[in-house]
Design goal:
Helix content: 25-40%
CATH topology of one domain: Thymidylate Synthase, Chain A
CATH superfamily of one domain: Thymidylate synthase/dCMP hydroxymethylase domain
Largest sheet: 6 strands, mixed
Distance between the termini: 35 Å
Strand content: 15-25%
Low-confidence stretches: 6-13
Strand order of the largest sheet: 1-2-8-7-6-5
CATH architecture of one domain: 2-Layer Sandwich
Number of helices: 10
Radius of gyration: 20 Å
Structural class: alpha+beta
CATH class of one domain: Alpha Beta
Number of strands: 10
């Protein structure tokens, strides 16, 4: 499908899957609306964007114009599936994706200018400290596998059930038993619980579609940090499709990604310009080497990536 962003001529890589991502990045940087955002950093933004990726034959949207740490992204996704909302398990694996938000809160409330590294080490070493400072509130995984349900408790009162709705388990069951349904959805946007979240879900809605024996998925993001967040989000959404396909005896189809406020931060200029000067190459593929009894049983050792020879990493500050 044609991409709705200006394409810069590059015959050697015009058909490469990554070209549409780079075209989107260029379009935002050159033509995006400059806005004051929640973080105070400022962005260039467009509203409404779409990318599509073929996932057949092991293909994955793993960017090659900079190194994307796919194992880190995979560890985060597997953490979502546990329903955990404390960063301790992530920090213990060396994953710092979520550390900045509780660190920022800790610094504000205590006045302690502790380094990120020292904060993460203390989270891992001190369970009580982690319980006090490492929880993110009911983010992603909590909604995915334990969406709260309330039932009448008498006298007009309601009580929360001990176990909420496991949307992911229900999704697997519906894909197996009713593949033609239009209700294959996992939703993270629980309006009642947004105030308690360190960050309301950006990749908020997943929907899945079966055609023949092929499973495709659509991810809608209300907010997308194209330079830092989107490469991880694309990997996570494609991985979700791959896991579901294996568990449901289907073949991976297509990932459709849709963005609401799709933006680049103004302080990411060096990254953007460096990445747009690079040419994509290669065809990364993912092999899942084991099929556990359920979608909740995967381990990082179950995934092998081949054909990935990325260019050097590009870093930029995270806007908290």
């Amino acid at each position: 499908m044609a991409v709705a962003y200006p394409v810069i001529d590059s015959p050697a890589s015009a058909a490469h899957f990554e070209r549409q991502y780079l075209d989107l990045m260029r379009h935002i940087w050159l033509h995006g609306d400059e806005r004051v955002d929640r973080t105070g950093v400022g962005t260039r933004s467009v509203f409404g964007a779409q990318l599509r990726f073929d996932l057949s034959d092991g293909q994955m949207p793993l960017l090659t114009t900079k190194r994307v740490y796919w194992k880190t992204a995979t560890r985060e996704f597997l953490w979502f599936l546990t329903g955990d909302t404390n960063i301790r398990a992530l920090c213990a694996q060396g994953v710092q994706i979520w550390t900045d938000w509780p660190l920022d809160r800790y610094r504000r409330e205590t006045g302690d200018s502790i380094t990120r590294e020292a904060f993460s080490e203390r989270i891992v070493a001190d369970e009580a400290f982690a319980l006090r400072w490492g929880d993110l509130g009911p983010v992603y995984g909590k909604q995915w596998v334990d969406w709260p349900v309330y039932e009448p408790a008498g006298d007009g009162l309601f009580r929360q059930r001990a176990q909420g709705v496991n949307q992911v388990a229900d999704l697997v069951e519906s894909l197996r038993t009713n593949p033609g349904s239009r209700r294959h959805i996992v939703e993270g946007w629980n309006v009642a619980e947004l105030p308690g979240m360190a960050l309301p879900p950006c990749h908020k809605t997943y929907q899945f579609h079966v055609t023949g024996n092929r499973l495709s998925g659509l991810l809608y993001q209300r907010s997308s940090d194209v330079a830092l967040g989107l490469p991880f989000n694309l990997w996570g959404a494609a991985l979700f499709i791959r896991l579901l396909a294996q568990q449901c005896d289907l073949e991976p189809g297509e990932l459709v990604w849709m963005g609401g406020d799709t933006h680049l931060y103004l302080n990411h200029a060096d990254l953007v310009e460096a990445q747009l000067a690079r040419e994509p190459s290669g065809a990364p593929t993912l092999a899942i080497t084991r099929r556990p009894d359920s979608i909740f049983g995967y381990r990082i050792e179950d995934f092998e990536v081949s054909g990935y020879a990325p260019q050097s990493p590009l870093s930029a500050p995270v806007a908290v």
